[in-house]
Amino acid sequence: MIDDMSDTSGIAGSRAIDRDLFTWPAQRPALLGSRCLGCDGVAFPVSGSCVRCGGLDLKVIELPRRGRLWAWTIQRFMPKSPYRSSETESTFTPYGIGYVELPGALRVEARLTEGDPARLRIGAEMELVVYVHRIDDDGTAVMNYAFKPADACE
User: Residue 25 domain-assigned?
Assistant: First the structure.
């Protein structure tokens, strides 16, 4: 399970795994998506053209921080290359992967902070969190996003 990272905004020497995925640094990080100004279609991650109509008139938006767990499974094996985290075969712990439905937007596939199947349920409210994915050789904390059961955030 990912350690509690409810206040990661003060981590010095950190960067987002990809600066176009979520706002960072931020007290309340948000995923970044694109909204088509022609058909109102929403995409994540940010896209150069509309996935619905092919339009090029897009606006970068912050997606809702909370949503509902739509589907999930447990990742029980260490991801293969090119995946890079601070985990090793000996420290790997199974974790949840799920689709979180963000209201008025879309469903986002994401890592879940919870790896216990007994604690995950379809329809559960989830909240975006940011966590240290790995530490680079120069000491920089590389931050990534995940969703945590909202009742664990309160």
Answer: no
Q: Could you tell me the pLDDT band of residue 4, with boundaries at 50, 70 and 90? A: very low
Torsion from C-alpha of 42, 44, 47, 50, nearest 10 degrees: -30
Give domain status of residue 110, yes or no. Answer: yes
pLDDT (0 to 100) of residue 148: 97
Q: What's the pTM?
A: 0.88
Q: What would the DSSP string read from start to end of the chain? A: -PPP-S--TT-TTEEESSTTTB--S-SS--BEEEEETTT--EESS--SS-TTT----EEEEEPPSEEEEEEEEEE-SPPPTT---S--TTT---EEEEEEEPTTS-EEEEEES---GGG--TT-EEEEEEEEEEE-TTSPEEEEEEEEEGGGT-
Rg (CA), the chain: 16
Q: Which pair of tokens denotes residue 89?
A: 């075969």
Choose among 122, 99, 98, 106: nearest CA to 63: 106
Please, which residues have CB within 8 angstroms of residue 24's CB and are 6 or more apart in sequence?
14, 15, 16, 130, 143
Residue range of the domain that includes 106:
65-152
Q: Give the chain's domain count.
A: 1
